Amino acid sequence: MNRKLSERSTVVAIKDQVSSDLGGEVAILDLAGGVYYGLDEVGARVWELIHEPIAVNQIQETIVEEYDADRVRVERDVLAFLQRLADEGLVKVRDDVSS
Fold first, then answer.
1. Residue 20 DSSP SS3
2. Which of 21, 55, 67, 95 is deepest in the core (most CB within 10 A)?
C-alpha cells in the first residue's frame, strides 16, 4: 500500500469499496476498514476516472483540460491525492515504474 507513485504509474480503484455520487461530490465507504471518505468535485472526477486502470499522467492531463487549470499545480495535487488514496488502501498501483 505504501508504493510510491509517479506520473507513469497506473492506478485503479479497489473493488472492496462502495461509492455514491452526491450531486458532483462523492462519498466512499471502504468496506474492509469501515471508513467513509468524502471527495469534492475534482476528487470525484478523479475517482470516476480510476474505475478502470489508468496512468497517472492521463488523469493529470484530463483534469488540466477539463478544469482549465495550471498544469504544474494539477500534476502535483493529483499525484499527492492519488498517493493518499493508495496509502489509505483505496487504489491499487500497477506497473509502477518509479524507483
1. strand
2. 55
Total of domains in the chain: 1
In which domain, by residue range, is 50 found?
Answer: 10-14+42-93
Q: Note whether residue 71 is domain-resident.
A: yes
pTM, to two decimals? 0.87
Give yes or no for a contact between 36 and 29, defined as CB atoms under 8 angstroms apart. Answer: yes
Residues of the chain with pLDDT under 70: 1-2, 96-99
Closest residue by Cα to residue 39 from 50, 48, 27: 27
Asked whether residue 3 is assigned to any structural domain, the reply reads: no
Closest CA to 32 of 55, 11, 14: 14
